[in-house]
Amino acid sequence: MSRTHDHSGILKKVKDEIPSDELICDLADLFKLFGDTTRAKILFSLFESEMCVCAIAEFLGMTQSAISHQLKVLRDANLVGSRREGKTIYYFLADDHVRIIIDMGFEHLIEEREGR
Amino acid sequence: MSRTHDHSGILKKVKDEIPSDELICDLADLFKLFGDTTRAKILFSLFESEMCVCAIAEFLGMTQSAISHQLKVLRDANLVGSRREGKTIYYFLADDHVRIIIDMGFEHLIEEREGR
DNA sequence: TTATCATATGAATGGTTGTTCATATGAAAG
DNA sequence: CTTTCATATGAACAACCATTCATATGATAA
Predict the structure, then answer these.
(1) Interface touch B15/A109, C-beta < 8 Å
(2) What are the phi and psi torsion angles at A80 (to 5°)?
(3) d(CA A2, CA A33)
(4) Residues 56-95 of B with CB under 7 A from strand D
(5) Contact B65, B75 (CB under 8 A)
(6) Does A5 contact strand D, using a CB cutoff of 7 Å?
(7) Least enclosed by CB within 10 Å: which of A14, A61, B45, B51?
(8) Is the distance from CB of A14 to CB of B48 less than 8 angstroms?
């Protein structure tokens, strides 16, 4: 079938073990959320305490609109939650998974730098 | 200074604790690598065993060129390594961090689904 | 109700990035 | 040396995405 050299043995093995396309896509979509500097900074900010939109915007030196758009992305993915207090809406981390995933990334970065 | 309501207290606290811009960018760049379906599939394939470029291409039903481009990205980030055997070049996972980071993502996905 | 403050949102834009196509490299076999 | 096989690479194109601008929503205060 293939015009290249044979590797049917490996292909069969990998095909049996690899997760479904859907699962891999969902996983890629999750990591994509952490793969933007602005979103990463927002998440780091929320590590310390809940914050309102304009506080995040001021802190990051960015437009309220830009932050609001990104918060929507994070909220749609259930990474952050929000609560209203008067006119202000406070955002916070939805759970501790965010911390754990980011910490893993950090460990990789640090060990890679030590390795050099 | 700000035309909005005051949040200087929170800003000071967050500013003290948040990592440097450079570190956050590096972290975002790392997660970006996992945020593409093709790269994620390549990494999952290499979980099982080392593979040559054309085996991965055949397995994923994609062009050799597309895979080669992505392997370069992964190799530049030290997530995969390669070795030559005759005409063939085999790629493999550089270390176990890749597995750990991906497993963390999986855990989050699974727990999120249970939560619903 | 009207004005104001905090946030949300739609459309447009600019920049990034994954894939393709054509071609180049480089090792091994003849 | 020449051909072939496996992989790499550069340029071009298309799709995606983050930001901006203008405006809308929605709650509160007057």
Answers:
(1) no
(2) -130, 160
(3) 37
(4) 64-65, 68-69, 71-72, 82, 87-90
(5) no
(6) yes
(7) A61
(8) yes
Q: Are A61 and A38 in contact (CB under 8 A)?
A: no
Edge-first strand order for the sheet with A88-93 is: A51-52, A88-93, A80-85
Q: What is the pLDDT of residues B49-107, one digit of tens each?
A: 999 999 999 999 999 999 999 999 999 999 999 999 999 999 999 988 899 999 999 88
Residues whose CB falls within 8 Å of the CB of residue B19, separated by 6 or more in sequence, listed in order: A44, B27
List the single residue in B18, B29, B105 with the smallest CB-CB distance to A44.
B18
Residue-wise pLDDT tens digits, A91-110: 999 988 899 999 999 988 98
Smallest CA–CA distance, residue B36 to chain A, in Å, is 6
| Chain A residues near residue B54 by CB distance under 8 angstroms | 2, 4-5, 7
**What does DSSP say about strands B51-52 and A80-85: parallel, antiparallel, or unpaired?**
unpaired
- Please state the separation of Cα A13 from the chain's center in Å: 30
Residue B56 tokens read as: 């991965």
- Residues B42 and B71: beta-carbon distance below 8 Å: yes
| Dist. CA A51–CA A91, nearest whole Å | 5
Residue A30 contacts strand D, CB under 7 A: no
B32: CB partners within 8 A, 6+ apart: A31, A32, A35, A36
